[in-house]
Design a protein that fits this description.
7 helices, mainly alpha, 65% helix, 170 residues
């Protein structure tokens, strides 16, 4: 809700905001282009597959995968259906609670992640980290942590998966 007398951004704040906005807009597009070109995966597909690959059993509930990726559960369900058709994942009932569905990374999916990861990591390194020294990396981490903390306190009606994704670690 706008206040009657807003406190406008200073020139320095405006430059910082525009730079951060450019990162928020351009970085996901650059990562998407790289992943499509090199692995025929969308950024969301890669992130979901990588999230599964990080698990010792390569299995995750769809609801947890939605939180991990920041996507709505319905979007993740459709995404997993597409990945299943490509042989990269399987859907299975959760053995601990049949009300949930698990996504399971297949051997073909694991191979896809292993093939996609090196170029993706190289792109992330080039776009984010190569221009930073140790102090810059610490600064980036501190700034990102502060922004995420502020996002966690907002009263804006963020989608539940996003709200859960920015929750501070327990």
């Amino acid at each position: 809700m706008a206040t009657e007398d807003p406190t406008w951004l200073t020139a320095d704040e405006m430059r910082a905001w525009r730079a951060l906005h450019a990162v928020a807009v351009v970085l996901p597009v650059a990562l998407e282009v790289q992943l499509q070109r090199d692995a025929q995966l969308s950024h969301l597909e890669y992130y979901a597959l990588a999230g599964l690959s990080d698990r010792s059993d390569r299995t995750l509930r769809l609801s947890d995968l939605a939180i991990l990726t920041g996507a709505e559960l319905s979007r993740i369900s459709h995404l997993i259906a597409r990945l299943e058709k490509r042989g990269l994942v399987l859907r299975r009932p959760d053995p601990d609670d049949a009300r949930y569905t698990n996504a399971v990374l297949t051997e073909q999916g694991w191979e896809k992640v292993k093939l996609a990861a090196p170029a993706h990591v190289a792109t992330v390194r080039k776009l984010l980290f190569d221009g930073l020294d140790a102090a810059g990396l610490r600064d980036l981490q501190n700034v990102a942590d502060r922004i995420v903390a502020a996002l966690g306190t907002t009263d804006l009606p963020l989608p539940p998966t996003i709200r859960k994704a920015i929750r501070p670690p327990e």
